[in-house]
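Q: Could you fold this chain for me?
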Amino acid sequence: MGHGAGEYKSADMGEGKPETGEIQLDGKRVAVTGAGGFIGSATCDRLAAGGTEVIAVEIDPALEPRVSGSAAEFRVADVSDSAATAAAVEGAELVVHTAAFVREWGTMEEFIPVNVRGTVNVLDAAEAAGAERVVHLSSVVVYGYAAEGELDQSASRRQVGIPYIDTKAASDRIACRRDAVVIRPGDVYGPGSVPWLIRPAELLRSGQMALPGKGDGTMLPVYIDDLVSSIVLGLRRGVPGHAYTVWDGEPVSFHDYFSRLAEIAGGRPPRRLPRAALSALAGTMELVAKLRGRPPDFGRHGITLVDRRGTASNTLVREELGWEPAVSLEEGLRRSGKWLREGEMTATSDSRPIHQMF
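A: Sure. Below is the predicted structure, expressed as structure tokens.
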């Protein structure tokens, strides 16, 4: 694929780099940024259970209870602040960077400090600390949403005019070139997921969920536990500069996924509307939300996020890291439904921008 407008060519995948030795994690000091978020807290729990000494790095001190059972130390830091980040990562032997500004609306100026500069700050801090390896959490959004067929890790990173996607693509490129191990999760769902469980469950219950066109956009699901397994494997044996796409390999349409979620959440299946009509509706919701001083329930950029045309290969993570998904979509939704029914659905505030919610 040649260089095109709005594309980053992934020629920096480290194909000629030697294999790295496996790192034994037991007893290692591991700093996890975005530790209070959905992915960050799950990562802290798994690492602590495996015998590592977790340094939980989080911007919001109120989230300390989320990791109090797994973190040996809680450090407050905003990754957009280079000095604070350096202090927070000091003493770490390994680093997992999950902190990100994650939402489908907002300006580029809001996303760059955390998603781009924050990534540089974490990489600089890890280098200064002498960390052996850094795992950077990227996303399959870097492939864009328009390409049909199956893409692999050599595909161009896309710029599509959506700040979240464009800044994740930029940070992905930086992390690869700085020899981090990059994990590109698919659509991460499970108990605690804001975009793929909590928010849609609320919309389905209120009958407000709608999808563009036929609702046949392709979801690339990965259950939170399976994603965390890939992060741990990345720490242990990931190849510096390589990017690993992580999802279960069984694509499902967004209409099918949300219809199944409606069944377990006690809601109505999503409606299907022409994309133009749905975009106009989302624009109105954005305007009303702005006037009320609150985030919109659904924005225009969100339409793109549920209208993916192709898939992405997970062959590399299977072959190089030995990762295999353990939780099927059916089982993952069963666990999610149980969590919802038990009344544990506590929505994470959308005003907390730093924490990785995907």
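A (continued): Residues 1-18, 345-358 have pLDDT under 50 and may be disordered.
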